[in-house]
Amino acid sequence: MISIVEAKGPAKQTPDKGVKAPQIEFVEEVFVDYKTPTHAGPGPHPTTESDDFSLTMGGISWIVSTTTKYKIEGGEPVSGANTALEAAEATWDGFVNPANFVRNDADPSPNPCGGSNRIEWGLIDGVGNALAFASVCRNVVTKEIVGFRMKLDTSETWSTNTPASDLDVENVASHEWGHVAGLGHTNKPASGCLTMYNFADDGETQKRTLGLGDKLGMDTFYATGITGPGPGCGF
C-alpha cells in the first residue's frame, strides 16, 4: 500500500467590510491500498499484536466536536455491502473523539477539499491492484481534519460473509476508516495483525477489529485511555 499526497487549494476566506481575511489552505492526503498475496510479507504471519502505529503527517486529527455526515454512492457490489461499511465505521466509534460520523445520503457535510464527505463504490484500476483509497482534507495551519472521501474498487470480488476467495468489505473498509481517523500505514511484517497494516488479501477479517498499535495510535490523538491489546491475530 502506497501513500500519496495531493494538494487542494489554497482556499481563501472572503474579506468582510474591507478587512483582509487570513488565507486558509487545505491539503488532501491520499492513501491507496493494494492487494498482496500474503498478509505480512516474507516470513510467517505474526502471532502477537505489535504496538506499532503511524500518524499521518506527524499528527493530524479531528478537532471540532460536531457531527460529520457522509453519504454512500454507487451500487453495492454484493448485498449488505453498505451495512458493512457502516459497521466498519462503528469499529472506530469511541476512539475518534470528538468527531461523530453519521451516514446521511441526503445531506452530507461539505468537504473543503471538494464536494462532500463520501464513500463511493466504483472503478479504480481493475482486478487485483488497488482495492480502495481514502483521503483526509486537513487545515494546514491547525492540523485539523475537516473532511474525507473513500472509494472501493468494484472490479474486485467482494463479500460480507468472508469466503476465502473474496475480499471482506468490513475488513478493507475498517482500514480505510483508520486513515479517515488520522492513522497512516504500519509497514513492518511484525505488524501484520493490525488494522492499519498496509496489506490485505482474500478471506482476511482481522482488520475488522483494532489491534494494540491501532489503539495506541488513537490514544495519542484523542486520549481515549483504551490501550489494551485487541482480540489477537487471525485471518
Description of the structure:
With 235 residues, the chain is an alpha/beta fold. It has a single domain (2-222), classed as 3-Layer(aba) Sandwich (Collagenase (Catalytic Domain)), CATH 3.40.390.10. It is 15% helix and 26% strand. It contains three helices and nine strands. The chain has helices at 81-91, 169-181, 212-222; strands spanning 2-12, 23-34, 67-73, 100-103, 118-122, 130-139, 145-153, 158-159, 167-168. Helix 1 packs across helix 2 (169-181). The radius of gyration is 18 Å and the shape is globular. The two termini are 18 Å apart.
Beta-strand residue percentage = 25-35%
What's the pLDDT, averaged over the residues?
Answer: 87
In order across it, which strands form the biggest sheet? Answer: 1-2-6-7-5-3-4
Please provide the count of β strands.
9
Structural class: alpha/beta
CATH classification, class level: Alpha Beta
Radius of gyration of CA atoms, rounded to a whole number = 18 Å
How are the SSEs ordered, and which strands pair?
Blueprint: E1 2-12, E2 23-34, E3 67-73, H1 81-91, E4 100-103, E5 118-122, E6 130-139, E7 145-153, E8 158-159, E9 167-168, H2 169-181, H3 212-222
Helix pairs in contact: 1-2
In brief, what are we looking at here?
This protein is of the alpha/beta class.
Structural key phrases:
seven-stranded mixed β-sheet; 26% strand; globular; alpha/beta; 235 residues; Collagenase (Catalytic Domain); 9 strands
